[in-house]
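On clarity, I found the account of how folds are encoded harder to follow than it need be. For illustration, here is how one protein appears when written out as sequence plus structure tokens:

:::
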Amino acid sequence: MTVADSKSISATAVTVITGASNGIGRAIAEAVLAQGRAVVNLDYVLPSWSHPQLTSYQGDLTDEASTRDRAAEIAAKHNVTALVNNAGATRPGTIDTATTAHLDDVVGLHLRAPMLLVQAFLPSLRASGQGRIVNMSSRAALGKADRIVYSATKAGMIGMTRTLAMELGRDGITVNAIGPGPIATELFRQSNPDGASQTQRILNSIAVGRMGTPDDVARAALFFLSPDNGFVTGQVLYVCGGTTLGVAPV
């Protein structure tokens, strides 16, 4: 189901953002829209908010057939010049409790869907001469207890980012990743409720002394999405309040 009714490809350049109905994705979408650019949102739920330059499609990115269908539909109707692979799910669990069903879900969401979307949009990304891809990894890619399948796939996104940057650089396409740390979203609070001891431990670990906000991540995304930043590619920017200090490689 979509809320798009165009019958042929539009000349308007659009930024596709997955998971833009809520949380970090919504903040990135609103920031891009505020710059006067059009946004296509692809999410498993349609947003409760609207904007004249926002078009939303509903699809299940954990499902290969659904992802392929929505990707083909968007590519046929829109001139995609930027892609933000933001949609994610944590699926908490240790090696003792993690299941292959959880692994399959996050592999589909964090690795297969981004690959399929990049493949679908490559013609227009290349044609633009300055295509932009931003992959939403996580500080957890460096290791996080109780996140075995999440951290593994988020680390995989970094590998994908670096390889894509090498393969697509001569096409004018930059590919970068963002690694958010503790960001106060609904998804974060599901695993780290207010007042819980683990939430306080996280707060105590943040060098700047506060939780991050979706807008903090959106500002980083705008930097990577800018047409003026064509010399930055294959990089990971940790938006983490300093929680990677002493952990992340220099």
